[in-house]
Batch of 2 targets.
Target 1
Amino acid sequence: MNYNNLLFDYVTRTQKNLEFIEKAIEEDPEKEVFEVTQLINSLLGLIVFPFEKFKYRIPRKPLSELENEGWVLPHVEGHFPQAPDLYELMHYLRNAVAHFNIVFTTDEHETINGIRVSNIYRGNKRWEASFSIIGLRDNVNRFVDLLHAI
């Protein structure tokens, strides 16, 4: 099957692959598939590529509005300010993913339950925040839905 609309077809295929892995682990928790790994891999096609294509069309909607709509805001680490709006949040997340400024966090059973992401510019950390895996996954879905509306 060929790509008709490269970006949107790629996003759709990435979502389907991620959902396939998530379903496989639900059906058989002992199966040797890694849904968090697939989520992080999928961020390239669900955040990085779309941000590059649509960065000037991503709304500068304040995070307070996003939170009221059900978005899960990241927990900012240290003294860094929260991103002011959706554009900057996705920009920071895009940079963290594209430059692999990611640290996995685990619970007391060593199960990955979140990621900490950093935005580093010319060696200086400008932002650091944590997402739960569930919150990150939900935000990715919301961002993809927004892309389809642009």
Target 2
Amino acid sequence: MSKSPLRGPAAAIAFVLASLTFSPDAGAQESGIAVGLKGPDATMEMLDGTPAKLAPVIAGKPAVIEFWATWCPNCRELEPTMEAAQKKYGTRVAFVGVAVSVNQSPERVRRYTAEHLLGFTHFYDRRGDAVEVYDVPATSYVVVLDKNGTVVYTGLGGKQDIEGAIQKALK
């Protein structure tokens, strides 16, 4: 498994720059975890600092996982699409927000999620565990898993076909 781009100060700076300069018109990508692989578990924190695992949140149903940051313009552009999908699919699909720890704190993420991405289960990836196992190339990275936990879609940028990705996951 390749190392995440979020290890070490130089890598963190590169990640931030990649996140800010990535084309918002991008759709599905060939970077990150490969389609067809099983989505791995990861240990992170809930926003109150409690340690938590990803697997129980996504077990047994399709899941949409977004790796995001409060400062990410592509994430903000994608937000209405993600919120609309969550409202449409509700409890049929698990919606998970993984806040990366680059240039933000759990408190900043808590304040942001009090008004945005409601209905999502939110994690704070302080140590970069989820970022590493999902090989996250930048913020606004979305992974969609089917009910068996198999990756059916990965995408990056502010404009993604989340509806189409969820439809693949529901088949």
